[in-house]
Recover the amino acids of this structure.
């Protein structure tokens, strides 16, 4: 604490930020690490592993299934949003249906802002009530409802082919994106697990994090600047089928890429990413304090992150935090990252337009992201599966690596069952180990009792 106070005092006197993260001097690939210059003077460290795969003759034809995604999204001037699913993929168990039970081929109109409110359809008189004399003819016609003029209407009509992605498939790449204060090292268990299965994995350090360069200008850490970095990384390493895995703030960049490249992004995994709301920095936040003050408070912030990011705060969790190089960024970068989270386009409509399958993973003890936000995300997304890990928190991929790896692998191998026709309810196929599959849209807690590291 005393060292942090002295460094913060020097920071105030000199006007320079202490503990600046700088990249490793060499740019030569070593042990799977590469250094990519996304912009002049802006270098990101990337962990890129291409495993040696056996020669496998793949049968491309007949694999996977094609689903028809068609929905109409209407936003009214009062802020109300109505989603009408008109394609073959309908999930009544996910949607709060106001029109009662429906057939699979019918249209479901859903009010996602207030599902408990009565439907806006014409009212039906009570057959048991006795109207006053002389008013029978006046109450027969239903009252006319004034038509609201929509502010915005979006129509999505596409066919999405979803197939199993195995490690032997050379056209599959996995992208892992960390959040604020993290680094690619938080994915150590996942990178080792999936590279051993034959997957090509790519994990970058965001600017100012890990061993990437740390520009001393706040504009370098806005959402748009970081999103362009991830776009450059994606375009450099992308294959024909790409799976994006994001954690916390990194989920927003995965959503951005899935929206920008729907033909190349095959599936998305969102780990403790929060609700489908537009990003906007908080005006009343501790991160709005001067950089030197934040630097003095850095030991307290690190302790708070340990308390809120892990379900337990023992020696193992402290070691994981240290090995994962998490929350080890300069106060200037931390302040700029939190202040630069401005993304007004990433609202509910933006998320509702996504047509790729998405797995939502939530740690039950997460104190940063309430479970209600991930439940809201599951309602908005067209094809989403929400899984809750009982013994996990915000850093669930570090706390429960075996459970997370199993969930991710089952999701990668999942493909829709269209053997009974395209209108059949989509259920993830059971894996070879006959484990409980990813239920379509249902929140299922998972006990983390088989983790050998616990």
């Amino acid at each position: 604490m005393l060292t942090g106070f002295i460094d913060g005092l020097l920071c105030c006197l000199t006007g320079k930020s202490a503990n600046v993260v700088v990249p490793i001097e060499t740019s030569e690939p070593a042990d799977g690490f590469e250094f990519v210059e996304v912009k002049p003077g802006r270098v990101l460290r990337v962990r890129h592993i291409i495993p040696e795969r056996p020669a496998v003759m793949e049968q491309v034809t007949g694999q996977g299934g094609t689903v028809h995604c068609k929905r109409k999204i209407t936003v009214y001037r009062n802020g109300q949003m109505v989603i009408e699913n008109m394609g073959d993929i309908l999930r009544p168990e996910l949607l709060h249906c106001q029109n009662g039970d429906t057939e699979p081929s019918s249209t479901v109109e859903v009010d996602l802002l207030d599902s408990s409110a009565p439907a806006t359809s014409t009212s039906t008189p009570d057959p048991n009530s006795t109207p006053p004399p002389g008013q029978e003819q006046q109450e027969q016609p239903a009252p006319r409802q004034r038509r609201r003029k929509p502010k915005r209407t979006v129509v999505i009509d596409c066919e999405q082919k979803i197939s199993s992605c195995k490690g032997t498939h050379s056209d599959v790449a996995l992208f892992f994106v960390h959040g604020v204060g993290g680094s690619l090292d938080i994915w150590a268990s996942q990178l080792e697990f999936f590279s051993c299965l034959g997957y090509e994995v790519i994990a970058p350090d965001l600017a100012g994090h890990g061993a990437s360069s740390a520009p001393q200008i706040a504009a370098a850490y806005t959402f748009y600047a970081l999103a362009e970095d991830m776009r450059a990384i994606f375009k450099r390493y992308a294959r024909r089928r790409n799976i994006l895995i994001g954690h916390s703030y990194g989920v927003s960049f995965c959503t951005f890429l899935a929206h920008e490249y729907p033909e190349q992004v095959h599936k998305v995994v969102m780990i403790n990413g929060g609700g489908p709301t537009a990003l906007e920095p908080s005006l009343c936040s501790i991160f709005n304090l001067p950089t030197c003050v934040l630097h003095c408070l850095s030991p307290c912030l690190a302790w708070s992150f340990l308390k809120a990011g892990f379900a337990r705060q023992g020696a193992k969790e402290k070691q994981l935090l240290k090995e994962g190089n998490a929350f080890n960024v300069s106060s200037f970068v931390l302040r700029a990252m939190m202040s630069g989270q401005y993304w007004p386009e990433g609202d509910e409509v933006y998320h509702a337009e996504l047509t790729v399958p998405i797995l939502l993973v939530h740690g039950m003890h997460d104190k940063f992201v309430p479970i209600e936000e991930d439940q809201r995300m599951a309602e908005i997304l067209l094809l989403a599966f929400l899984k809750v890990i009982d013994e996990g928190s915000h850093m669930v991929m570090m706390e429960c690596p075996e459970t997370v790896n199993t969930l991710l692998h089952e999701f990668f191998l999942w493909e829709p069952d269209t053997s009974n026709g395209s209108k059949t309810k989509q259920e993830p196929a059971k894996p070879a180990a006959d484990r409980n599959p990813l239920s379509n849209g249902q929140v299922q807690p998972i006990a983390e009792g088989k983790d050998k590291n616990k």
In short: Residues 223-237 form the longest helix (15 residues). The radius of gyration is 25 Å.
